[in-house]
Amino acid sequence: xxxxxxxxxxxxxxxxxxxxxxxxxxxxxxxxxxxxxxxxxxxxxxxxxxxxxxxxxxxxxxxxxxxxxxxxxxxxxxxxxxxxxxxxxxxxxxxxxxxxxxxxxxxxxxxxxxxxxxxxxxxxxxxxxxxxxxxxxxxxxxxxxxxxxxxxxxxxxxxxxxxxxxxxxxxxxxxxxxxx
Length: 180
What we know:
Blueprint: H1 2-10, H2 15-75, H3 96-106, E1 110-117, H4 119-123, E2 127-136, H5 138-148, E3 154-164, E4 169-178
Antiparallel strand pairs: 1-2, 2-4, 3-4
Helix pairs in contact: 3-5
């Protein structure tokens, strides 16, 4: 072992080389402190901004269909139907179910049932109540209400009941019609 100690102690490094080594190490340290660390923080900040922008972009993509619906609805300048009020004859009252079924289909609603209440004629002469059960979305139901507002023998809407189901909305509506 004494020979190894001699080898290590016999190595002489000139002072000038040590000075250059320390200057180079100090330069590397300054480069890391002034160059790499601020850049890595800047890159981390940019990554955070990129993630926020991607999140906002995804939100915009998710909301695009709703926005387009509002834009399309805004461009349509429609007026609500205001037909001259009249009455339907008792002979034509058999077509009432088919009329409402067509209006529901045109509004993209699924018809579950349409039931005219003939007993309402006895209790309220000149008026016929119709109970309907439909399934669909709010906008489709809105269109359906606008369409039934155009029926000249519609007296009034008595009941609207909307229940959320797993698939869609179940809509129950009761209307009164004028019958002669």
